[in-house]
């Protein structure tokens, strides 16, 4: 099989929604019965996204195989309803380190090792390997950054070479740009798109499609002007105007004939009857349309200043809302500024997502305690699990100033402590407990009701865990640890049976949630919150 490629590049500026456009094109090809997957190239020098601050870069998305990836990988998984391995997030650091390692091994003896061809060859090799190993009909590769950036140049050059080597009937370039309208009459400006395409052509890439972001649908005259100046066929200038939900983007692209055009360029013959696929997808999209009756959830966390820092948690709540027919209003509460704890009684449920470090931790501990005392549904994820245990230790087990050693290394009652195998770890990158692990669930627990199973597999990203020395004390005082992993070594789920809904999970359920298929803990939490 010869895999075809769709390469998506970015123009004008960042933040145009290239990830959503890429996911949507991939979705359309999947709906057309193509075996498809996506790759994200991140041209930065970090080896992976794991060491970046979520407030500047958005969430770190964790894959089944323990990759700490760019959040676009999460978009791909949610749109395609398919797991994406970590090899699909390629960074500059990964490419350069393998070339440099190979040079030290003597692979290029005698040669001067250079960006072209050695770096570009390594990039091409990785992309082609994914296509072949996974036997794909189409592989979509999204190149991060904006054309003109120094750091993305080797990647764009590699993509250009693939088109020359594999032939133009196997490769399509889609360039994402912007047509802003700033004057009162709302004239759509084409110059940024013209310049951006010029920049792309300067490095030898002529786009086949332009996905042009705009607030209103692109006018015919705007499209004509863009087509004329960019050498792209009029019908392939696609209007990517604002829509109510990102899940409407595939339909919007489809209505403009993009699938037909892609199939023609790929010289694929025969029409695919995909109506059954579309029916299923449309049912999901419709279920996600906002409903009037809202469930108000307080999200108490540390990284609340950027919505993208908990993007998968937001999505998971919306998936759950779609399933139970309610819309979800997510209210960010900065745990550092939680002076009036009583404000939390205004919400139907309290959710504490993941986090790291001391800042804001007392606010989270108070929120977890408030939820317990006031019988407000509570879902704590990772840090939210750990700090719920801390608050239970302090208030129900008489362990004064109990803490996690991440926050207070001197605490007398270290109810949360470093994983034993982490004690010798000094590197910060890629060294947490990462990826999917199996969890055994206790019979007759809330967790067993939620998952309807005694064995689940969930993704992890943590260095600390519940300290089993305190297990007896906690259980005597009414907490049940209903999930465990690694032969009982680690506690994975906590619950309080006397409470309406009090659940803490050491894993990250949000990474397994998909539109139409909400992760079970989110669905259960939202269902109870909706009745609260
Ligand atoms: N900081 C905590 C730990 O490392 C929790 C991590 C998280 O919430 N992802 O264990």
**Small molecules held by this entry:** glutamine
Helix content: 25-40%
Which parts are unreliable, with pLDDT below 50 for 5 consecutive residues or more? Answer: none
CATH superfamily grouping of the largest domain: P-loop containing nucleotide triphosphate hydrolases
CATH uppermost class of the largest domain = Alpha Beta
What is the topology, as strand order, of the major beta sheet? Answer: 11-10-12-13-21-20-19-16-17
The computed structural class is: alpha/beta
Please give the largest β-sheet. Answer: 9 strands, mixed
Q: Gap between N and C termini, in Å?
A: 54 Å
Describe this entry's structure for a reader.
The chain is an alpha/beta fold and 532 residues long. It has 2 domains: 4-277, 3-Layer(aba) Sandwich (Rossmann fold); 293-530, Rossmann fold (3-Layer(aba) Sandwich), CATH 3.40.50. Helix content is 36%, strand content 21%. It is built from 17 helices and 21 strands. The strands form 4 sheets. A 9-stranded mixed β-sheet has the order 11-10-12-13-21-20-19-16-17, sandwiched between helices. Strand 7, helix 7 and strand 8 (209-214) form a beta-alpha-beta unit. The radius of gyration is 25 Å and the shape is globular. The termini are far apart. The mean pLDDT is 94. The structure holds glutamine.
Write the layout of secondary structure elements.
Blueprint: E1 4-10, H1 18-31, E2 36-42, H2 54-57, E3 61-62, E4 68-69, H3 72-80, E5 89-91, H4 92-105, H5 115-133, E6 138-143, H6 153-166, E7 171-178, H7 191-202, E8 209-214, H8 220-230, E9 237-241, H9 249-255, H10 258-265, H11 275-287, E10 294-301, H12 311-324, E11 327-334, E12 349-352, H13 361-373, E13 378-381, H14 383-396, E14 403-404, E15 414-418, E16 433-441, H15 446-451, E17 455-462, E18 464-466, H16 471-476, E19 480-485, E20 490-495, E21 502-505, H17 520-531
Parallel strand pairs: 1-6, 1-7, 2-5, 2-6, 7-8, 8-9, 10-11, 10-12, 12-13, 13-21, 14-15
Antiparallel strand pairs: 3-4, 15-18, 16-17, 16-19, 19-20, 20-21
Residues 354-356, 382-383, 386, 406, 461-464 line the site of glutamine.
